[in-house]
Amino acid sequence: MVVISVLNPKGGSGKTTLTTNLAQALHLRGSKVLIVDSDPQGSARDWHAASAANPLPLVSLDRANNIKTLSSMIGSYDHIVLDGAAKLEDIIAAAIKVSDFILIPVQPSPYDIWAASDLVDFIKARQEVTDGSPKAAFVITRHIEGTRLGDDVRDALDEYGLPVLSTAITQRQVYPQTASEGRTVFEGGNTKAHDEIDALANEVIGMLADAGHGEAKDGTHG
């Protein structure tokens, strides 16, 4: 089992959008995937409840002690994708401890970049006592095509010493449209959105493989 947490203490960074779409990308590759909603606001739960045909199981673990129970699910799933809470340090700290990989969504805004500072410190402190685990990377979200903001954000994030994924998630109407229906961009008919989520999944799986988790490109164990 591999635990991927999507974390950023700042609200509105796109955590739930990334969680649901990444989980579906892994599911479509044949992986057994569980979504965990750790945010008491329950955005992922609302998304899940919006479609009776949702193929992905979801559990709500919105207390730090509950998140620790993820270890009991080893063997039941290939991937667990956790939607992180905003501003709740105890839940974020618990998620970091159980994670194999942390995806940090950041909008092209100085406020979002600054807000990531404490999270990076938490992750690096954990890595120091666990021989570099969990791995972590930034992903730029709500990028506006035709602007240089993405490049500026990459330059700023480089100072944190964590990799920035090559894939950026562009601001597209298909993301909120499909979310409101409990779906993902894979059902939304937007090829560009489909391709960028697939590219994101490829990068995450590649980094997990490099870290020794042995995840093949189709989502199966290597």
Automatic annotation (TrEMBL):
| Gene3D superfamilies xref list | P-loop containing nucleotide triphosphate hydrolases
Domain annotation CobQ/CobB/MinD/ParA nucleotide binding: ranges: 4-184
Q: Note the CDD domains from the entry.
A: ParAB_family (cd02042)
Any one Pfam family here would be: CbiA
| UniProt name for this protein | AAA family ATPase
Lineage, broadest ranks? Bacteria, Pseudomonadati, Pseudomonadota, Alphaproteobacteria, Sphingomonadales
